[in-house]
Structures are given as structure tokens and as C-alpha cells.
Amino acid sequence: MLDVISQSLCLPLQQSPEYARACEAMGLNLRACKREQGGDLRLWWQVQSRRFKPLGRVDMVSRGPVGRTPDDLRDWLDRWQHWHDGRPLVLNAEGMRATWLRKAGFWPLMTPATIALLDLGPPEVMRAAQHQKWRNRLTKAQSSAVKVTRHALTPQHWLLHQELEQARDKGYRPLPPALCAAYTRANPGQAVVFEARHRGDIIAGAVMLRHGPMATWQIGHSFPEGRKMNAMNLILWQAMCWLAERGHVCLDLGLLNDQDAPGMTRFKLGTGAKAHRLAGTWLHSGVLAPMARLLPMRLAG
Fold first, then answer.
1. Who contacts 37 (Cβ-Cβ below 8 Å, separation ≥6)?
2. Using CA atoms, how far apart are residues 185 and 188, in angstroms rounded to an integer?
3. What angle (nearest 5°) sits at the alpha carbon of residue 215, between those of residues 140 and 261?
4. Ramachandran region of residue 27, left (φ > 0), alpha (ψ -120 to 50) or beta?
């Protein structure tokens, strides 16, 4: 059954109760905050605190807050200091305009990233949304001898180790494998592995993390034989259909990086996913807030 909070708002992974349970299992507690109106949940955000020298404790809200409407997000910016104790706050904002953040005294740290969000629904609708080349590769994989199996993620699964090696080679920072392992322990049945095999050999695999009406493609790896046989197209298609059957309405395919990984960007968008630009990473501190409000918009955007 989908989490009650997640059912009310479509929460990205970092804002989901499932993610909070995984962090708690690792001793990394998140504070959950919400605002309701007339019994209706309007805003939800989770706060994680860390200590950084010389700043001391710094709070962080990642991919949040999540609001029902843009007006709810503006209301959060007007009122957020009512619940915050004045410590520095790093906000990896979701759905907020740079003008709003600058007016509230937030200083830009990182330019906005872009992710791919895929709507899930009836198979015929999802298939019609795919780009022709992507759909052709899927059809080819479906007519091959490639078989896809599904099972729960285990803490020692080969994909977790492969992700570390792949991250070192390509220079990115993945979700720690220990957190993925904690996720599957804290949320039974919510971390799912799809594996493609050909003649008994594993040729590709992917991990999907389920959280309310959303799901996240967290890890994916294809060996040379898998790439040759379009195994990831088949894996992702079967995952899309399976997730949609279980009530999920959106699959987060992760970051788009057209400069460093143009092939992966084409692959993700070929599914029919839409590019979704986040609002960037911002810092609020008492010292910087007055200057942040005067920052030229060309630097704040």
C-alpha cells in the first residue's frame, strides 16, 4: 500500500518517508515538517542536519519543499523562518523561481540541474510516447532471446558494487551503496532489481526505488553484450509497466548531462520522459541574506 503522506503529494526520493526510514536505519535522522490547511496537506519537507567547520550545524532540504501549488511554495518562503532556528540552510530547491529565492535572502551556490521525469500509465500510452528509435530497439530486444527477471535488492547485490566502480570511472557521486542497502532493509519490497540474461548470463541490470506514487531509477548498468542486444530498453520497459500496474504515476530517471553523457541523455528522453529543470542549490545565512537580496538576477538565475 502506498504511504499516506506520499499519496497526498508526489514526493521525490529525498523527500519521501521511505528515504527517511533508510537514513534512520543508518543513524542519519531527518526531521519531517508539514503544513496543513483544513485537514489538507499543503506542504511537506524533510530536513537533514550536518556539522561543517567553521559553520557548525548546517540544515539541508534536498528536492524540497514539496507543495501542492506554486502559491504554497511562495508561502513557505514567506514563513520558513518560523520553524527554522536561524542556522545556515542549504536548499536544493524544487519548483521555486530564482526571483522568489533572492527576495527571501537565499544566495545561489549551484546552477540548476535538469532531470528526466517519465509519466507512467497504460502500456499503449507509454509506448506511443517513445521516440521511434527507442521503440525500435525495444521491439528488437523483445523479439530476442533476452529474458528479464525481477527480485528484491539484496545488500550485497552485484549492481551496488558495479555502481561504485562506474562512479569512479565516470567521476560522479552516487547514492552510497550502504544507503541503498539500508533502503531495502527499511522498506521491504520497495527496492527492486530487474536483471536481463542471455543464455543464462547476466548482461544488464537496474535498481528501482519505490516511494509513494513516484519511483526512481537509482542504478543501471549494461555489459557490452547487453548494450549490443538493447537489454536496458527491455529492462526499463518492463519496469515501467510493472510500476504502473502498482499505482506509480511517475518515474524519475535522474540527471540529464548532455555535455558529458549525451548518449545517456538521448536514452532517457527516448523513453518519452520530459526534461525537468530544478531550481538550483541555495544558501541562507544571516550574514549573506542582505547581500543576496541585492544580487543581480543574471547571477542569481
1. none
2. 6
3. 60
4. left
| CA–CA dist 123, 243 (Å, integer) | 11
1-58 pLDDT per residue, tens: 345 555 578 999 999 999 999 999 999 889 999 999 888 899 999 999 988 777 678 9
pLDDT, tens digit (0-9, with 9 covering 90-100), for 205-250: 999 999 999 999 999 999 999 999 999 999 999 999 999 999 999 9
SS3 track for 206-218:
EEEEEECCEEEEE
Alpha helix ranges (H) inside the chain: 4-8, 17-25, 70-79, 98-103, 123-129, 132-142, 158-170, 177-186, 224-228, 231-245, 262-270, 289-292, 297-300
Residues counted in the chain? 301
Q: Is the full-model pTM beyond 0.70?
A: yes
Pick the CATH number of 4-113+278-300 from 3.40.190.10, 1.20.120.920, 3.30.200.20, 3.40.630.30: 3.40.630.30
Distance CA 224, CA 3 (A): 38
Backbone angles phi, psi at 218, to 5 degrees: -90, -40
Q: Which residues of 5-20 are buried (b: 16+ CB within 10 A; e: fewer)?
A: bbebbbbbbbbbbbbb
What is d(CA 201, CA 197) in angstroms, rounded to the nearest whole number? 5
DSSP 88: -
Say which amino acid occupies 279: A
193 forms bridges with which residues in the sheet? 151, 207
Domain 115-277 fold is Aminopeptidase (3.40.630)
d(C-alpha 238, C-alpha 254), whole Å: 18
Extents of the domains making up the chain: 4-113+278-300, 115-277
